[in-house]
Write a structure and sequence with these properties.
Layout: E1 2-5, H1 19-31, E2 37-42, E3 46-54, E4 63-65, E5 69-77, E6 80-86, E7 103-105, E8 112-116, E9 120-124, E10 128-134, E11 142-151
Length: 152
């Protein structure tokens, strides 16, 4: 997993051939103030979800991982905490849902934490269990986020 700022996105272009397109779409969505919704960028290979929500209390957020997609979770506005840990240290909480490409896991007391705010993002690969959407210090707040799904 990676936590970084948009100004450094070019450092990650070599990690996947679609990362450049993903970050270009994020930059365009920010400049155009793209509203909440799902957006096709390149069919099922690359698509995005723009979300607006209230960050969750820790116990209401879910730890998840995906087999077929890398998540780029970009904070447009607001602040949230995202936990992450390696899938080898994960205990499944549900069966894998192949339609939604998601499996949920038990929390991990040793998970790393990233506090993300405007123009910051996390990149989560299939081996990264991540628990997004957590409010900071128990203070729920409005968040606008772009999640770009990059086919593995």
């Amino acid at each position: 997993m990676v936590f970084d700022n948009l100004k450094n996105c070019e450092l990650y272009y070599g990690m996947h051939p679609r990362f450049r397109d993903a970050f270009d779409w994020i930059k365009k969505a920010i400049s155009e103030n793209t509203p909440a919704g799902k957006y096709e960028i390149d069919g099922k290979e690359l698509w995005a979800s723009v979300q607006e929500y209230t960050s969750k209390l820790y116990e209401d957020a879910k730890a998840e991982a995906h087999k077929n997609y890398i998540d780029i979770q970009f904070i447009v506005a607001g602040t949230e905490v995202i936990e992450g840990f390696d899938i080898s240290k994960a205990t499944p909480k549900s069966e894998y849902n192949d339609v939604k490409d998601v499996m949920f896991y038990e929390d991990n007391a040793n998970a790393g934490k990233g506090v993300l705010t405007d123009n910051e993002y996390g990149i989560f690969f299939p081996h990264d269990v991540h628990k997004p959407g957590i409010c900071l210090n128990g203070n729920q707040a409005t968040v606008k986020k772009i999640v770009v799904k990059v086919k593995v």
